[in-house]
Every structure is written in structure tokens, then in C-alpha cells.
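A reminder before we start the practical. When you read a complex entry, don't treat the lines as separate problems. The point of joint prediction is that each chain is placed relative to the others, so the output describes one connected object in space. Small molecules and nucleic acid strands, if listed, are placed in the same frame. In the example below there are two entries. Take a minute to note the order of the lines before looking further.
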Amino acid sequence: MQINVTLADGSTRTIAAQEGLSVMEVLRNAGILDGECNGSLACATCHVWVDESWLDKLETPLEGEEDMLDVAFNIAPTSRLCCQIIMGPGNDGIRISMPHPL
Amino acid sequence: MTVNVDVAIVGAGPVGLFAVFACGQLGMRTAVIDGLADPGGQLTALYPEKPIYDIPGRSKIRADALVDDLLAQAEPYEPNYILGHHAQACSETSDGTFVVTTSGSRKVFARAVLLAAGAGAFGPNRPPLEGIRAFENKSVFYHVGRRDRFAGKRLLIAGGGDSAVDWALSLAEVAQSVTVVHRRDTFRALPAAVAAMQADPRIQVETPYQLVGLDGVDGHLRAVNIGRIGGNAKRIGADALLALFGLSGDLGPLADWGVHIDGKTIPVDAKTCETSRSGIYAIGDVARYPGKLNLILTGFAEAATAANAAFARVFPGKTLHSEYSTTRGVPVSTQNQHFQTA
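Here is the predicted structure of the whole assembly.
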């Protein structure tokens, strides 16, 4: 199971992921993001852009996720908080990008 | 104004407050410094009404009630609370006493420092716009302060919560014009207030838009560029920007303390919680060592570990007599806790 990440500088990485972990946990373990609130929807430090082709494979964001996206910056139509995306067979190979600075 | 204590605690979150007790049990007097005006850290600032289920011995406790209990537990030790002050600098005298200087120019003299800084000092969640700092407090603001500073101005308010909506309604009375920019059509505010804002002819609501750039000279705004989410940008003439995106933690102020910081955490020796700088300890979420769990209960244990480690520094040559709190008891307080605020 893996996650394909495009970093803010444009480089790409493929990261091994375990089923049942959130994308945030996998990326935090890889040192790519902070995930400060540990998935409790109290921050937006795991804001990512999900590749458009993967977006409709994911569940609709909860209200709490939408609320926290309100305090994220550089929002795209495919913005998500990746602590809410749990790795499973349905999103093995998911492609995401780290928002680059404005 | 100076304060003399044994241990300076930076951060009045749950772990910093318990550190008052942990130090107090060992006879060490404490001062607690926090940038927020109220104690409790994230429990107070971010989730006071949420229940917590993993405090040992408490099957369920609201975050604000836990803060109250921690204050009560600390109270017999008469900690010196210095709230509304950021701990800014830390120097050391020739005899090894630390001097922590606060943003309100207090000096705290202590033999040891405990950093219970959580995710860092809370400051405004600053939009990452190029050059924004040059505009701050001149034409870009993160809180209203005085309403009259927006009088006659073309004001742009960014954000989608209660404060954005309420201030739009309030400041429309004094500003020349008010534009509210938010990334989606839904606002996190009372429906009646949102309806009033949308119906107000003095307020222009721009959704789904976000901030993308500032235009101005010498800190004075001329315009703000806003971008449609997934679309094009446009320019809104503005004299002032009120950016209301809540709070964000920042370890930045600790950068010059001579303590090794790795990203948003401070590596410590798990046996003592001591940082790379002798006499400065880190506890709670900010402290990291292999196997660290970011839980309040872990932070409580670290407070006790750091207090024990700091004892030898505070009382050189004195033997640390090991005793349970059931034996040691707690002092009877002679005065109510006193909070100093900026």
C-alpha cells in the first residue's frame, strides 16, 4: 500500500503506507508534515491537495473538516485534511500534493 | 519588575500547571509564564467544552473542568502566574541562574526552566502572504482593538467564523466599506448574523474566495488580491485588512534560547527531560524522545520526571528524600492564587 506525494518544491515521493493509518500519520512519520492536533480536527497542519482523479473515491468531508479548512491557506477545490483519509484498499496509490507557498 | 523563584515554567497548559504541583511537592517555588491571558493552554483556547476520557482516575472530564482542578491542585504552592506575557529570552548569570524575560518586561530569576510549551506560543494564524509582516499593525490586523482605527477605511475582512461575521456587521457602521472574503458560502456563525451580513448593503461578501496577495507601500495597503478557489484572482481596493483565522502555535520565540529545536519539538533525554541546554527541561507535547506519546497523561509524568531532575540543580548538595504525596501532604494555602496579566 502506498501514497504518492508531490512536495511543495515539485519533487515526488512514493511512501509505503500501512492499512488503517491515516494519510496524515504516514506523512508525519515520513517527516513531511506536522499533524499537530493528531487528527482531532483542531488544526489544519495536514492540509493537502488530493489529485482530482482520486477525489471521488474518498468519503465526503465531515463538517468539522470543512470548518478547519476555513483556517487553512492556499485552498484548492480538492483541498482536504489528510488526517481524515484512512488508508485502505480503495485508496492504495492515492496521489496528493503538498500545498506550495502562495 | 522581577520575580525570584526556583523554577520558571513556560506554558500554563495542563502540563505546565501540573508542573507547579510536581515542583511544589519537592519544595520548589514556581512562576508560570504564558502568552495567553487565561491558564489552560489548548484546553482553554481550543476545546474547553470537549470531554476528555484518558485522564487516569477521571472516567470523563471536560477540558475546562480539568483546568480548574489543575489550578486547585497547584494553588497550595502559590505559583506566580505571569499571564498575557510571552517568554521571550533566556539568559544565564555567572552563578548559573536563568533570567527569563517576558514580552511585558518582567524578569523571572530561576535555577531551572521547564518548557511546557505545547505546540508553541499562540499567536495569530497568519496568512502566508508575501511581505505581510511589513503591513502588520499599520494596515493588516489580526484583532480589532479599537473600532475607530477602521473609521472611514475601505476594510477587507478575511475569515468565515463568528468573529468575521460579527465584526463585519459592527465595523460596517464606521468603515467606508466592508468586504468579507471567505473560501466557501457557509459561515461558522449564528444563522441570524450571517443573514444580516448578507442583507447589509454596506457589506460586500466575496465567496468562494481567498487571500492571495497584498499591494501597498510602507506598510500601507492599497489593495488586496483575492483568488476564486480554483479560479482567477481579482483586486479589491482596501486600506485595511482584518485577517481572522484563529490562533496558531509557534516555537519561534524559543529559537534563540540555546535549546536544540527540531521542527516543532524539542528533543530531550527521556530519563530527565533535560534539553540540549543544561538546566532547561522540556515536558508535554513539545518534548520528544523515542517512543514519546503525545498525551496529557504522558506530560504529567514528564512534569514529575523533570521536577525530580531539576531538584539537584535548585538545591545543590541536598538529598532528594523520596516520599509519596500521601505522606508528604500539601501545604495549607495562605493566600489566593494571584494572576498577573499584561
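Discuss with your neighbour: Helices of chain A lie at 23-29, 52-55, 63-69. What might explain this?
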